[in-house]
Amino acid sequence: MNALVTPTAPDQSGRSSPPPALSLRAVRRVYGRNGSAVRALDGVDTDFHAGTFTAVMGPSGSGKSTLLHCAAGLDRPSAGTVHLGDTDLGRLSESALTKLRRARIGFVFQAFNLVSALNVRDNILLPSRLAHTRPDPRWLSEVVSRVGLDGRLRHRPAQLSGGEQQRVAIARAMSTRPDVIFCDEPTGALDSRTAAGVLGLLRELVSTGDQTIVMVTHDPAAAAHAHHVLFLADGRIVGEMAQPSPDAILERVRRLDFK
Could you give the domains of the chain? Predict the structure, then answer.
């Protein structure tokens, strides 16, 4: 079954409530043609609301990465629609999509993807530089403080621990005040203690800053930091879980035959 979709309803004043931060409707993604066609996503319907932390899990080949790529505007669905707020990504040109990603979407990857020649401050401000926009110094100061990098701005990535490098990546993702931050296995390269600290930081950003985070992970312990978990198999959402515990997630993982 796919995730239930709650239509936008009027509030008590008669006005419509805000749209979800991100919504996918009947999203399909097919690679190849005819007999060689592979259906990576098969009619996905789901909403991601502002101020929520959602983990996406599933076996290898279930469509996790394809869902993230389509939702973030990195790949175009074969059918269906993706909306970031009230913006239909399918109606945007490649140039407009690039500008939207720089301004309204943040990314955190397993490999950190920091520029080794740049110090922490310049790595954080890289999205603004690429978008040719002037950064807000007060917001930069707040972001640096929230991720615990005060006093490290002049350091280069090689002078930082793995956990610190991932905090730089998170700060970089936050630097443009994005609508949604997408995380692709953000703790896969970290030891368990450091990973717990990074996941706690992501949860805190949602709880105290109304940030929206969508995280792809294979790790039940990581997923347990989220408010909500979506389970994918064969390109479809086959289950969901609110306020998950590691044990409950692990049991569901076993039934999905993760690899």
Answer: 22-256 (3.40.50.300)
